Amino acid sequence: AHQRFERLQLAKAIFTGATLSLIFWHQGALAQGTEWSEKDLARSVHRAEQTFVGGEMSRAYGLFAHLVSVAGDRAFLHYRFGATCTYTSQRLSEARDHLRIAQELGILETEYEAGWHYYMARYHQSMFQFDDAAVHLRKAIDLGQEKDDWMDDAKLRFGQCTNNEGFTAGAQTLTNLET
After folding, report:
1. Cβ atoms of 107 and 120 closer than 8 Å
2. Which residues contact 162 (CB under 8 A, 6 or more apart)?
3. Engineered SS bond to 124: which of 12, 77, 100, 132, CB 3.0-4.6 Å?
4. Has residue 87 got a pLDDT over 80?
């Protein structure tokens, strides 16, 4: 019975080792630039996009980061990855970098131009660059459609940015009260 138990343990260890080896080989192959089929890429983009639209930004961040690493020549992927990064203050430099890459790859000549301006404005507003944010928000509002899911937020942010004197004064008053 003891030998049978040892053989069973050995078989489990071999199976586990073989499975892990296959997983690491597969991940290594992807990291080394193995080409994805367009169908695989489309399926992964669809999954990432659903996650983004569903508001799961942490998960969307990971999915789009991976997609950018395997298909870095796609403007939409950089656009969406940059957009995802605008939802947390810890990733603002990534947001700026990937939105700029998307711009260089031609995103402004696509249907996503208005959205690009909205997310670039989110970046600028988070950095307290209200004038730059207002310029991008104005373009987003002018180019976008009422049905765009970010439109109401863009209008609200535009009002905040164009009235930032009051906001800045209010923030200064709060700072003075704390000290």
Report:
1. no
2. 130, 134
3. 132
4. yes
Rounded CA separation 43/41 (Å): 5
- Sequence-distant (6+) residues with CB within 8 A of 32 are none
Q: Tokens 């207002």 appear where?
A: 134
Helix (H/G/I), strand (E/B), else coil: 32: coil
Rg over alpha carbons for the chain, rounded to the nearest Å, is 23
Question: Which of 90, 68, 89 is CA-nearest to residue 77?
Answer: 68
Tokens found for residue 77? 């992927």
Of 158, 111, 82, 113, whose CA–CA distance to 167 is shortest? 158
* Dihedral of alpha carbons 69, 38, 61, 96, sign: positive
The overall pTM is greater than 0.70? yes
| Cα 12 from Cα 15, distance rounded (Å) | 5
Residue pair 75/107 in contact (Cβ under 8 Å)? The answer is yes
Q: How does pLDDT run across 21-67, given as a tens digit for each residue?
A: 333 434 444 444 456 688 999 999 999 999 999 999 999 999 999 99
Each residue's pLDDT tens digit, 157-174: 999 999 866 555 555 555
Question: What does each C-alpha distance from 20 to 13, 28, 36 come to in angstroms?
Answer: 10, 12, 22
Between 14 and 22, whose confidence is greater?
Answer: 14
